[in-house]
Every structure is written in C-alpha cells, then in structure tokens.
Amino acid sequence: MHAEIISACSSAKEIAWMEKLAMDIDDGNTTDQSPYLPMLFIDNMSGIDWFKNAKINEKSKYIELQYYWIRKNLVEGNRLCIQHVAGQD
Question: pLDDT at residue 25 above 60?
Fold first, then answer.
C-alpha cells in the first residue's frame, strides 16, 4: 500500500501544479465557469481507502506527513477526485 500511495501522491502533486498553472494563465475572459475536477485513477483499493478515510491503522502508520497534505488539501478539499480502475487480471 505504501508504494501505491507514494505514486498517487506524486501524480497528485503534478495535478496541483497544473491547476496552479491553469489559474495563472487564465486572464478572466473565459466564458466557461464550470469548475474542472481532475480525476486520479488508482488500481489499489487500500490506497483509495487511505485517501478517503482518515483512520490510522497498522499499515498506514509509517506514511510520511507530506502525503497527508495531499489527502487533506486536494482530496478532502474537493480539488481532486479519486476513482478505482481495475488492474489486469
């Protein structure tokens, strides 16, 4: 689970950077006012559960503080949607 969270957080950081870039480029003249909610697809259910649930269990107690920032500010702040995608069978 730890490796999946690190990988997902790396992608989430890129998404946050792209969101900031889009805000900086926007000059206010756009007519589309619908918010863009990026989606992050993860194939590991325990990783998805960690992002959506704040409980600390035996497997998640060694996850570093920087990854909690991603969950708190992006996922709980409704700036990122996490979806499950089935891996190959």
Answer: yes
- The domain ranges of the chain are 2-27+36-84
Please give the full DSSP string across 14-32, using - where no structure is assigned.
Answer: HHHHHHHHHHHH--S--S-
5: its two tokens: 């969270």
The fraction of the chain above a pLDDT of 90, given in percent, is 0
- E-strand ranges in the chain read 39-42, 81-84
Provide mean pLDDT across the span 69-85: 83
Closest CA to 71 of 40, 35, 36, 34: 40
Q: Residue type for 29, please? A: N
Residue 34 has pLDDT above 60, yes or no: no
Residue 41: phi and psi, rounded to 5, are: -95, 125
